[in-house]
Design goal:
alpha/beta, TIM Barrel, eight-stranded parallel beta sheet, about 40% helix
Length: about 260
């Protein structure tokens, strides 16, 4: 049983071999794959993928890189997209001060607008945060009533992770947990409670060892799971059962 809670299968890197990748995923018997949008167009194409394949589910949202283009009209369009039964979250949303492709004030405004949408639609959020941990936490803390979600591909400290856990969020780990220079992540992998941990590939990015440097693939989520199980000293079947429970608990529109 494989579960990938975050992969971008509508990314341009797959445009020439998507069918081949999907067939590989099917052979590995992947149970759940959540495909977040990063803008209106990719949110729509994510839904199209989800409607085509039973195991794929969609999330809709504006990534902080694209926040500068997220007009009120486009946010309203995201709202209508959530009517689709395969839309299980609002995401990928959040803050990115590393690249700052969109001004910080615009990122915050669009982040909060999409949090409001998630609350309105009673959906979890998938949060991107890079070099913006304090502002991300403050916004989530200030909006924490009736809000749930996950910090995707988490890269912060254990101290900050505890604060996210305290306001009800999940922590998701990805390929960097397998990297030799992942100094903070092993502690997090061990200490996050078993009912609050998720795994993902963030394909086509952040490819885990032993395929680091190549285009990522959702089936590589098994290497992430194996590394976490090694650190936690737990059987992989038990761990993957916990991952399944957590995924279905958070993304409660998923029906298997």
């Amino acid at each position: 049983m494989l579960i990938d809670t975050h992969a971008h299968m509508n990314d341009d890197r797959y445009k020439d071999n998507l069918d081949e990748i999907i067939n590989l995923i099917k052979k590995e018997k992947m149970t759940i794959l959540i495909n977040p949008g990063v803008d209106l167009e990719t949110s729509i194409s994510s839904i199209e993928l989800a409607e085509k394949y039973d195991f794929i589910y969609a999330a809709v949202g504006y990534h902080p890189h694209e926040a500068k283009d997220a007009t009120e009209e486009k946010i309203e369009k995201l709202d209508t997209l959530t009517d689709n039964k395969k839309v299980v979250a609002i995401g990928e949303i959040g803050l990115d001060y590393y690249y700052e492709y969109s001004p910080k004030n615009i990122q915050k405004k669009v982040f909060e607008a999409q949090i409001d949408l998630a609350k309105k639609r009673d959906l979890p959020i998938i949060v991107h945060s890079r070099d913006a941990h304090q502002d991300t936490y403050n916004i989530l803390k200030n909006n924490s009533n009736n809000l749930r979600g996950v910090l995707h591909s988490y890269s912060g400290s254990w101290e900050l992770a505890k604060r996210y856990l305290d306001i009800g969020f999940y922590i998701s780990l990805s390929g960097p947990i397998t990297f030799k220079n992942a100094h903070k992540l092993p502690e997090i992998a061990v200490k996050v409670p078993k009912d609050r941990i998720l795994i993902e590939t963030d394909s086509p990015y952040l490819t885990p060892v032993p395929y680091r440097g190549k285009t990522n693939n959702p089936i590589y989520v098994k290497y992430i799971a194996q590394e976490i199980c090694k650190l936690r000293e737990v059987d992989i079947k038990i761990f993957m059962n916990d991952i399944k429970k957590n995924t279905l608990e958070l993304f409660d529109k998923i029906v298997l």
